[in-house]
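tokens incoming
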């Protein structure tokens, strides 16, 4: 490719080390970046700094040279800048005044951090070529302003992960929905081309355009994410549960539908049966903890084990030793845990909703996400029918070559840049 390709690592720039392993979008950014590094040594890695209002070229550590086996920026501890919080439209005057004051304070702190990072950041002007980003839209809007302000002719190719907050938008959206809506509108208006992470996300984006919630799309390619679950070279240290368990990664009450799992466990208890242990891996959510501690879940709380932020090695071990992975979500842009489970040869139970059938194909076992009875029957069969469980495993292992790797994703991302008609950002847009 004759024009330079810039790959945005700002998502990692603003994260501490520990969150990268389980924060879904950051993981996607890191995995694609690593594979782009392997595929094309000419890719230029950049970050955008809000305080400096400028892009910087960075030289990341990749693979075995990184602390996580994928990519890290190699910055000194404590030098990561804070995310700025400016005033949001529609907020009260006291709220806007506080946000402005606090943002001014954070800018001063960030300037000292930038001085500590001088040897790691090389100023770079993006004047042409392609800027590819898989980061959150809330981080992309500031980059758009910079490109427009500097008159850049760089073509902008964002990967959009979902538009779930626009579901049930209604007449009185909450602050998160309003901000998500504004950020995605701006990203789409200024993008040269949109990359969607699944067919479902592509259709969902178009549906929101037709509803008038999003502006017309400039053109769109679909690049499905990967099933691959990469080991980071660490040794697993977590002691596994002594009883049979099913695994939910990042599963919570609400949209991700831990509710149906708890209801299924209750049914099994009412039938005089012991349900499999439900292991929840990922960042502990206060709402989930509060829900488990409420009276309505008193009978099943002892059958739930929460493991806060296990290492990648421990997570892989949890996948490999589970009866199955559960993904009962009602809305997902992709569904990384479902794909990772299949990659590691572990049966997966999923709702046949949104993008999950794209991820699971004919290898996952699907159930009605509103039917605790159906899920209870599947859990009991997994726990008691060894031949059934082994049959599922054999089918998954036999289909391993059909699953997508992160290399596949990176190759498809580069191919999307060849789509004709992409325009640079319009400063007047």
């Amino acid at each position: 490719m004759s024009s330079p390709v810039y790959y945005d690592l700002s998502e990692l720039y603003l994260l501490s080390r520990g969150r990268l392993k389980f924060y879904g979008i950051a993981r996607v950014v890191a995995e694609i970046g690593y594979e782009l590094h392997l595929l094309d040594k000419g890719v230029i890695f950049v970050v955008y700094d809000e305080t400096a209002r400028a892009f910087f070229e960075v030289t990341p550590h990749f693979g075995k040279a990184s602390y996580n086996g994928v990519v890290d920026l190699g910055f000194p501890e404590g030098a990561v800048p804070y995310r700025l919080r400016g005033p949001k439209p529609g907020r009260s005057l006291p709220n806007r005044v506080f946000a402005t004051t606090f943002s001014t304070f954070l800018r001063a702190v960030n300037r000292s951090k930038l001085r500590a990072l001088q040897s790691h950041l090389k100023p770079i002007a993006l004047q042409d070529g392609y800027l590819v980003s898989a980061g959150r839209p809330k981080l992309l809007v500031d980059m758009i302003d910079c490109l427009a302000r500097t008159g850049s002719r760089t073509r902008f190719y964002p990967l959009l992960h979902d538009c779930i907050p626009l579901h049930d938008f209604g007449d009185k959206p909450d602050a998160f929905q309003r901000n998500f809506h504004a950020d995605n509108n701006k990203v789409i208006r200024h993008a040269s081309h949109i990359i969607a992470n699944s067919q479902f996300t592509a259709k969902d984006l178009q549906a929101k355009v037709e509803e008038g919630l999003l502006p017309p799309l400039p053109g769109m390619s679909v690049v499905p994410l990967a099933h691959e679950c990469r080991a980071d070279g660490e040794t697993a240290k977590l002691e596994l549960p002594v009883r049979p368990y099913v695994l939910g990664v990042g599963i919570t009450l609400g949209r991700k539908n831990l509710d149906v799992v708890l209801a299924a466990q209750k049914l099994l208890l009412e039938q005089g049966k012991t349900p499999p242990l439900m292991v929840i891996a990922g960042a502990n959510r206060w709402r989930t903890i509060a829900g488990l501690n409420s009276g309505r879940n008193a009978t099943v709380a002892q059958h739930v084990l929460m493991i806060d932020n296990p290492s990648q090695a421990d997570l892989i071990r949890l996948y490999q030793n589970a009866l199955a992975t559960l993904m009962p979500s009602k809305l997902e842009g992709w569904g990384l845990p479902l794909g990772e489970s299949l990659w590691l040869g572990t049966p997966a139970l999923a709702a046949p909703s949104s993008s999950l059938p794209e991820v699971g194909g004919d290898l996952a076992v699907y159930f009605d996400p509103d039917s605790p009875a159906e899920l209870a029957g599947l859990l009991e069969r997994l726990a008691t029918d060894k031949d059934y469980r082994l049959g599922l495993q054999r089918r998954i292992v036999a289909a391993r070559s059909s699953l997508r790797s992160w290399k596949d994703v990176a190759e498809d991302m580069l191919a999307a840049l060849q789509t004709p008609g992409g325009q640079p950002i319009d400063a007047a847009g």
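note: The chain has two domains: 5-226+408-416, 245-403.
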